[in-house]
Amino acid sequence: MTLLNAAPMGVALFLNACSGALAAPPSADASIGAEPIYEREVTIEKFAFRPAEITVKAGTVVTWRNLDETPHAIVSDDFKSEMFDADETFSHTYAKLGTFPYVCGVHPAHMKGRVIVTP
Ligand SMILES: [Cu+2]
User: Fold this and answer.
1) Is the residue at 21 inside a domain?
2) Distance in Å, CA 106 to ligand 1 centroid
3) Into how many domains does the chain fold?
4) Tens place of pLDDT for every residue, the chain, 119 residues?
């Protein structure tokens, strides 16, 4: 007779343990989702930046993707990339407000672009 009483008790404890374990993760996910991450991509194609001018919010990660067979590089007043080859990328985070021109370090005379950073 005591065995019949013991079984439901065990099931109840098991369910409580499960719901307790499931309760924690959703709140953790919500705090991660609260901070948006801005990303923009500029492609390098036929020795040109496309688009040559972009406007982004402060904190945006801009990624240049080289679609040419030739290596290119991004050179700005604030930073300078290594040369990167076909299908490779280089990323820079624009934290400060302003207008930031850049050129290709390999072909500076005719490969120019700029990033405008707004609040
Ligand atoms: Cu170039």
Assistant:
1) no
2) 5
3) 1
4) 444 444 444 444 444 444 444 444 444 444 555 566 899 999 999 999 999 999 999 999 999 999 999 999 999 999 999 999 999 999 999 999 999 999 999 999 999 999 999 99
Expressed in angstroms and rounded, the spacing between residue 43 Cα and the centre of ligand 1 is: 12
> Rounded CA gap, 110 and 48, in Å?
8
Task: Identify residues whose C-beta is under 5 A from ligand 1, the ion.
Answer: 72, 104, 106-107, 111
Q: pTM, whole model, 2 decimals?
A: 0.71
Between the CA of 48 and the centroid of ligand 1 the distance, in Å, is: 8
Segments forming the whole domain that contains residue 78: 39-118
| Residue 84, in any domain of the structure | yes
Question: 89: domain CATH number?
Answer: 2.60.40.420
Strand residues in the chain grouped as ranges (E): 39-44, 49-50, 53-57, 60-66, 74-76, 89-94, 98-104, 112-118
